[in-house]
Amino acid sequence: MVPTVPLPRRPLDPGDTTSDVLHWYENELGWATVPGSGSGGLPVRLVVGRSFDVLDVPAEAGFAALRHRGQVRAPASPVALHGDWMLLLVATGSADELPGLLDWLEWGGLAADLRAIGAGGHIEAPLPPGPPGLPGSPVPAGSSPGTQGIAQGRTNPQGAAVWLRPPETGCGTAVPLPTMSALGGVGGAPDLVRLVDTLATQCHRVRLRRACAQPLAFS
Predict the structure, then answer these.
(1) Is a pLDDT exceeding 60 seen at residue 151?
(2) What's this model's pTM, rounded to 2 decimal places?
(3) What 3-state DSSP class applies to 21?
């Protein structure tokens, strides 16, 4: 077995928001950040493909999928929102599995709506969750079925990435993420196949609604 070298630890500067963000991701979660990101007023970026991959879907379809998974009591996993797109964290290697999985589920035509980011990619780091009302804090979802703990809006007016369901820390274990086999993943990990099928179904429904909303063209 190849020995695992711990990520370097950054000292936390209480007066520096960038240091707060880097500290939370690197020290609390053990996730790698892109070297140099966060400087010059630019956001911190997370390395994808080491601790997680990402499924990227339109937010409208993503919220519908989360409501459905809540109704069937599917296990929860980290979710973020960036503009009009929802980012769902999944197990490493999932990005490579997605094209074949979509074809197997007969959803191959949705590649433009249901995208994956894997090794070599990176995403903007959502602000770490804080007290309600502060930037980066999840907004209570009310009583919508299946969306407990999911934000229905954002507290960042600039449209930066924010956590809807942040990863849990302090448990001393890896964050459970959807994987190809629930039996083969971290305890309680959701099934990637069911997640992708649900997301694809909702992406298809959104596409149909938008098509029906288009005015008819007459020559």
Answers:
(1) no
(2) 0.78
(3) helix
